[in-house]
Amino acid sequence: MTQPVNHLAIIMDGNGRWAAARGMPRTYGHKAGVEALRRTVKSVPKFGIKHLTLYAFSSENWSRPADEIKDLLSLLKLYIRRDLAELAANGVRVRIIGRREGLRPDILALIESAEEKTAHNTELNLNIAFNYGGRDEIVRAMQTVIDDPSGPVAKGERVTEQHISAALDTVASPDPDLILRTSGEVRLSNFLLWQVAYAEMVFLDCMWPDFDEHHLAEAIEIFTRRDRRFGGVEAVKGAAQ
Ligand code: FPP
C-alpha cells in the first residue's frame, strides 16, 4: 500500500540565482525564500507530513560575505519573531538543529524561546537546520556517546547505531523518507548525512523562491512511484519508516 511521506527534508537552494535573474541582490532572493518557506510550512500538513526539516544555514555558510550572513541572521530572527505565534497556534513544534556553541546570545535566546513556546505542539514537527553540518552533527553525537556516564563506552559495551541515532540533533524525528532539493543541483551538501541512509531523493529544477504547493505535490508524486526496498528485495511502495 502506498504510504504518505512522514518526514520531508528540504535543501532550499537557488535564492541567489533567482535574485540574479531579476538583476537583484542575493538578499532579495533570501527574502523571497522565506515566503516560500512560510508557504511550505502551511502546505505540508495537507499531504500528511508530520516532520519537516529545512536547511536554513549550514556550518559552511559562514564563509559567505559578511553582509549576506548578517541578512540571513536577520531573516531568521524576523521569521521567528513574526511567525512564532501563528506557528504555535497551528500546532507546529519548532526545533532548531545544528551547533549551538558560539552562536550570538540574541539568536540563542530566540531559538530557545521558539522551542519552549511550541514544546507541547504535535501537529507538525518543524526542524530548522541552522549552523548545521551533517559531519559536525555526527562528531558531536559521537562525543555525547563517549561522554555519557551511563552510556556504552563507560560500561565497556559496544557502540551501536541506536546509540548514535539517539545522540543526533534529530532524535525527535524518524529518518527522512524524502529529501528534496530545488535549483537543479544534485548533491547533499552535508545535510543529514547519517539520517538519509534509505531516503528517496528528488531534485527539482525550480528555484526555491518559486517553490509552491504544486512543486510539493510533484515531489510527493515522484516519491510514491519509487520502490523502496531498504536493502531487501521486496518493494515497499513509498513506505514511511
Ligand atoms: C540557498 O540559496 C539558500 C540558503 C543558503 C539559505 C536558505 C535560506 C532561506 C530560505 C531564507 C532564510 C530563512 C531563514 C529562516 C534563515 P543560495 O544562496 O545558495 O542560492 P544560489 O545557489 O542560487 O546562490
From TrEMBL:
Pfam families: Prenyltransf (PF01255)
Keywords tagged on the record: Magnesium, Metal-binding, Transferase
Keyword Transit peptide: no
Chain positions recorded as Mg(2+) binding sites: D13, E200
Active site: D13, N61 (proton acceptor)
Keyword Cell wall biogenesis/degradation among UniProt keywords: no
Binding positions for substrate per the UniProt entry: 14-18, 26, 30, 58-60, 62, 64, 181, 187-189
EC number: 2.5.1.-
Enzyme class: transferase
Any one annotated GO CC term: cytosol
Xref: HAMAP family: ISPT (MF_01139)
General function of this protein: Catalyzes the condensation of isopentenyl diphosphate (IPP) with allylic pyrophosphates generating different type of terpenoids.
PANTHER family: DEHYDRODOLICHYL DIPHOSPHATE SYNTHASE 2, DEHYDRODOLICHYL DIPHOSPHATE SYNTHASE FAMILY MEMBER
Name recorded for this polypeptide: Isoprenyl transferase
